[in-house]
Amino acid sequence: MSEQEEGMATVEEQQEMEDKVISPEKAEEVKLKARYPNLGAKPGGSDFLRKRLQKGQKYFDSGDYNMAKAKMKNKQLPSAPTEKTEITGDHIPTPQDLPQRKTSIVASKLAV
Amino acid sequence: MAGVAGGNDFQWCFSQVKGAIDEDVAEADIISTVEFNYSGDLLATGDKGGRVVIFQHEQESKNRPHLRGEYNVYSTFQSHEPEFDYLKSLEIEEKINKIRWLPQQNAAHFLLSTNDKTIKLWKISERDKRAEGYNLKDEEGRLREPYRITSLRVPVLMPMDLMVEASPRRIFANAHTYHINSISVNSDHETYLSADDLRINLWHLEITDRSFNIVDIKPANMEELTEVITAAECHPHQCNVFVYSSSKGTIRLCDMRAAALCDRHSKFFEEPEDPSSRSFFSEIISSISDVKFSHSGRYMMTRDYLSVKVWDLNMENRPVETYQVHEYLRSKLCSLYENDCIFDKFECCWNGSDSAIMTGSYNNFFRMFDRNTRRDITLEASRESSKPRATLKPRKVSTGGKRKKDEISVDSLDFNKKILHTAWHPKDNVIAVAATNNLYIFQDKIN
């Protein structure tokens, strides 16, 4: 945590102490809104549900992928993003990006 | 049958632990479902790697009659494999979401296992005899030359080492656009239901190319989507009744005799909320992660993020019992939202006599509630308390400023050690607790 965030935390703590009289849950909400002011007005609404329904969505175009693979031979492409970011149509996946899809037939360690 | 520790004559003790002790847990080894069969003789686990391991209860040894027998590996197989839906650019995980046993009807055992998209019916059968003395084949199975066969004999069945085989008998695929969260075998032993985020389908166990859609809550305009189906279960005795829970904390009971499409519920269970206490987190923590009928069929239990509620099916406006699992987390909701723990889906289960209920928590803690005495206990699944027949010591989380000796403070809890899946033997006081990649089996001490 940066020093700036720590400074802000004490202000939050003071506010939290006031809010604790009301409810711990509301105090937590205040804390969250302070950290993420852009959080949608509709909590748990359709954005959140839609993200849940789209779990597992990957965007892949074999033509783009092969073009990118060909380019890799010539120059270094930027390093792959972390797994959490969604790979959308804008970003062309490269062999580094694609997770290893192993059809593992390793025995479960419970069966030892 | 006693349910919960706390009395003078009842204590839980360690029996077995399965799985590796590695610090580095491979994702595939994370246990994703645990289920006893109807007799409690078999215990199945599924993991994120799509594998199923079945343990069988061995008879108690004559030397130590005060101990219950142990569970040892009976069969293991790869149930599901990772897939990619090229049409929709969807990665389909091989993780086993649920396993449900079928009631036993002959010597073989049957279970349903499902991942996000496909349900499979597996047959597990034993082979302990082998035919020997074939006429057309030799001992290695090679075909004999016809001119060498000069006499005829009757093959004899000889005993062989027990072999347990698992084979997929039915594959129920392509019926779910969204992710399957529940499967439930009906009491008619012919049909079962499968539920995803927006739809519930009814299948016949013999028919794989067709299923009836019985609930569809998908709105015409997806922008209007406000709630999803989180769990569903068939009534244990009435084959026309089932329930499903939602992300808004409500439960709907449906009667399949009333209509082919059960979009209109017969009963609607919801606890009234105090509007003044509503916060950003209210809806998220009210989302029901599991619903289970009692064995009697009179009650059902729901698990939301902070509590377990018991409902009387005859009373829709509020639960009859509410048990706090880890109320001390209410003042930590902000960080639990940030690290996604607030979306963890805990399961719950009844004991065989419906007198006690159990559910998991963090830090490898799990909780049990005795419905009669109203006592509760917190226990821990850890390697430290894994000495054979060691009694489990009750654990306590300190919430106030002063922390007593042996208590653990809320801030010291390990939120990566979650117990999401637990199972209670249908007849005995034996429980199975999945702690990430380890399976713990605890039993009561027979005094």
UniProtKB/TrEMBL annotation, chain A:
- Which compartments is it annotated to reside in? Cytoplasm
Q: Does the keyword Phosphoprotein apply?
A: yes
Its main subcellular localisation, reduced to a broad class, is cytoplasm
Q: List, in alphabetical order, the GO biological process terms annotated in this UniProt record.
A: cell division
Q: Which residues form a coiled coil?
A: none
User: Which cellular component appears as one GO term in the record?
Assistant: cytoplasm
UniProt xrefs under Pfam families: Endosulfine (PF04667)
The UniProt keyword set, sorted, is: Cell cycle, Cell division, Cytoplasm, Mitosis, Phosphoprotein, Protein phosphatase inhibitor
The Swiss-Prot or TrEMBL record annotates one GO molecular function as: protein phosphatase inhibitor activity
Instruction: Report the InterPro entries cross-referenced here.
Output: Endosulphine
Region annotated Disordered sits at 1-25, 72-112
By sequence similarity, the record places it as follows: Belongs to the endosulfine family.
Q: What does this protein do?
A: Protein phosphatase inhibitor that specifically inhibits protein phosphatase 2A (PP2A) during mitosis.
- Return the protein name: cAMP-regulated phosphoprotein 19a
From TrEMBL, chain B:
**InterPro entries with a match to the protein in the record:** PP2A_PR55, PP2A_PR55_CS, WD40/YVTN_repeat-like_dom_sf, WD40_repeat_dom_sf, WD40_rpt
| GO MF assignments | protein phosphatase regulator activity
| Gene Ontology CC terms, in alphabetical order | protein phosphatase type 2A complex
Spell out the residue ranges making up region: Disordered. 381-404
Arranged from A to Z, the UniProt key words for this protein are:
Repeat, WD repeat
What family does the database annotate? Answer: Belongs to the phosphatase 2A regulatory subunit B family.
The annotated subunit structure for this chain is: PP2A consists of a common heterodimeric core enzyme, composed of a 36 kDa catalytic subunit (subunit C) and a 65 kDa constant regulatory subunit (PR65 or subunit A), that associates with a variety of regulatory subunits.
Q: What is this protein called?
A: Serine/threonine-protein phosphatase 2A 55 kDa regulatory subunit B
Q: Which organism is it from?
A: Cyprinodon variegatus (Sheepshead minnow)
